[in-house]
Amino acid sequence: MTVQPFVSPDLIRQRFSKAMSDMYREEVPLYGALMELVEQTNREVLSREPDIARQLANTGEIQRLDMERHGAIRVGTATELATLARLFAVMGMQPVGYYDLTPAGVPVHSTAFRAVHEAALQISPFRVFTSLLRLELIENPELRSFAESVLAQRSIFTAAALRLISQAETAGGLNEAEAAEFVLQALETFRWHHSATVTAAQYQTLSAQHRLIADVVAFKGPHINHLTPRTLDIDRVQEQMPAHGITPKAVIEGPPRRQCPILLRQTSFKALDEPIAFTDQGSVRGSHSARFGEIEQRGAALTPRGRALYDRLLNAAREELGDFPNEGNAARYNELMAQHFGEFPDSVEGMREQELAYFRYFATEKGLAAAGIGQSSLEDLLREGYVKAEPLVYEDFLPVSAAGIFQSNLGDAAQTHYGEHSNRQAFEQALGRATIDELALYAETQRRSIEECLAQLAR
């Protein structure tokens, strides 16, 4: 009997990402329009900006640009989160970072499941921003108990998905047929449900506490609430969205427009108002809004020093604004952001010299052709043009930006002030493991690239 080889977790992730995108395009037609706009914008940027095209070719990002996606889901219990961690592990995805959204009035804490090695990210950079509802923040004990009882009665995974997760864990992987079945079964966890699991009155009570609580508690499963393609010019996409029948949110979340993009910039279209059936309505239908479209532009990953500077400038701009960014103050907010971020160096050299960002290092053709440079310092090699530094792309998320996207789609009425502080320990206990420090991953990638570069030049 021939033993079939296992399919690489990276390839399973790549197939799952495509299947998710196809499903979401079918469920949310505006996502398809958004994809076309992003693809068109990226072609224009690559055509008119040869330096950007060259940089993406150097780093290998150009090969992954069209398949770049992140999704977002929200779950309600520790068991759901722990099982999701096992499901994502089959696809080579690990929990990176801890995000507390309660300071921005959103009762969840989160992590991002993604690949952690640059080689795996090249095959598929798919990420899922995964949030766990903080039931302890529901002030009314009766409502909290009701929410817990509703969540306890559901199972968000198919029996076949659970079986295949266990099989992958026991055997060490999945063969071709098993991997194909796993993708189909795992997809069911993220599918939209037109039927609620509560009555109309119960839904309204949950929604009155916080609209996100209703979104998590009132349905059979978590449903993917957005999928996000990566653009090379988010300002252009934001400007063009209305012409494609898409209404964008008021402001782009994250840093302002720069020559050298940093971290993550995000915008979205407003959540769709979709018909659903409550358990007591029969043929009469209600509605629920949760799913939206999002676009992102990714820039350089920042070091602890760079991130401290970013946080200080962002906080200063928001404090001077004195309110959540919205349609009424969008122009003023953009003005303040540009003003404050004038302090952040806007060149590769400036960010590298001040150790504000992480970089990948590549041997140039000149360096590979030269002799006797193996003992030179990295700075000397850079100065002589034997080595080139490219900013390391930020693979993760920003809690203030995530909360801003959530709030724009939940409505201003959903803004709540929670007295609780973050509770990373409780999140990791629910997850069943510690989350990975994203800054350590970037530092490790940078270190590997320097070693590989110097080894090439030594040969």
Automatic annotation (TrEMBL):
Q: Name one GO molecular function term.
A: dioxygenase activity
Query: CDD domains recorded for this chain?
Result: VOC_YdcJ_like (cd16348)
Q: Which family does it belong to?
A: Belongs to the 2-oxoadipate dioxygenase/decarboxylase family.
Q: What is its EC number?
A: 1.13.11.93
Pfam families from the UniProt entry? HGLS (PF07063)
**What does the UniProt keyword field contain?**
Dioxygenase, Iron, Oxidoreductase
- Highest taxon listed in the record's lineage: Bacteria
What InterPro entries would the database entry show?
Answer: HGLS, YdcJ_bac-like
Which cofactors does the annotated protein need, by name? Fe(2+)
- Protein name listed in UniProt: 2-oxoadipate dioxygenase/decarboxylase
